[in-house]
Structure formats: C-alpha cells, structure tokens
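G.,

No rush on this.
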Amino acid sequence: MVEVKRKKNETVDALLRRFQRRFQQSGKNLEMRKRRFHDAGKNKNQRRGSALRREEMKAQYAYLTKTGQLKEESKKSYRR
C-alpha cells in the first residue's frame, strides 16, 4: 500500500493530490481493475456443451425449414 505522510504546512488538497499521484504510479489501480473485471471464461466441458446445443438447434431449424413447418421469412437477424 502507498503511504504518504503530511508535510509541515501542507494542505489536505496537496496531500491528497500527492497520494493520488503516487498511487497511480505504483500500478495498484491497474491491478485492482484487472482483478475486478477479470472474466474466467468457460471451462472445456461448458464450451463443449454449448457447442453441442448450437449444433442441435441448427439441425432442428434446418429440419423444420425443410419440412415446411417454419417459413424462411420468420428468420430473424440479430446482427447490427
């Protein structure tokens, strides 16, 4: 942790400014942000399961389209 001692006749604003500068230079702020917003991601089994579900949905959609139970127009595009 960064320590800053108050100098003689130093204002609180100057002390705070000095502390903020030292804190930023130490790199602790970046480290905290990395830890806070770190995304661990999915493990191998979860990725495999979601890929299998996607393939099943594609196959089901293709079957419904082929048999005429689903119209081509009803296909929605979510891309921007």
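When you get to it, here's the other one too:
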Amino acid sequence: MSEKELARWEKSRHLAQELIQGVRDIKAGRIERRYTADSYPIVRAREKSGLTQVQFSQLMGVSVRTLQD
C-alpha cells in the first residue's frame, strides 16, 4: 500500500465504530487471531509516528493493553 493509499484509507476509517464493534465481537465470542501484529496498518502507523505504545494509546484514547491486543 502506498503512502497516498494509506492516507486515503486512514481518512475513510471510523475508528471509534471499529473499536466498539470489536468489543462487541469479543463479548459475543466472535473473535480469533488471524494475523500477526505486522499485518495491521495501525502497527505501521504507530511505528511511523515514532510514538511509544503508551503515547500512541493516549493519542487514540485507549489503554495500552487495548492497543496491544
């Protein structure tokens, strides 16, 4: 994915809705790990930002543990 495509994709996301849906899926037992951490764009975005996990989680308004899972 190019930088331009990544930026376009990030702008189109509704992160709060995705997080809420993720919590609902977990509570309903509809969750399983299918990917490695490296396959998530959020991991690449944090690494590119140069922020620590703590700093990035604070920016996103979630706990560090949520970010790690």
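The chain has one domain: 3-68. The chain has five helices and no strands.

Enjoy the weekend,
O.
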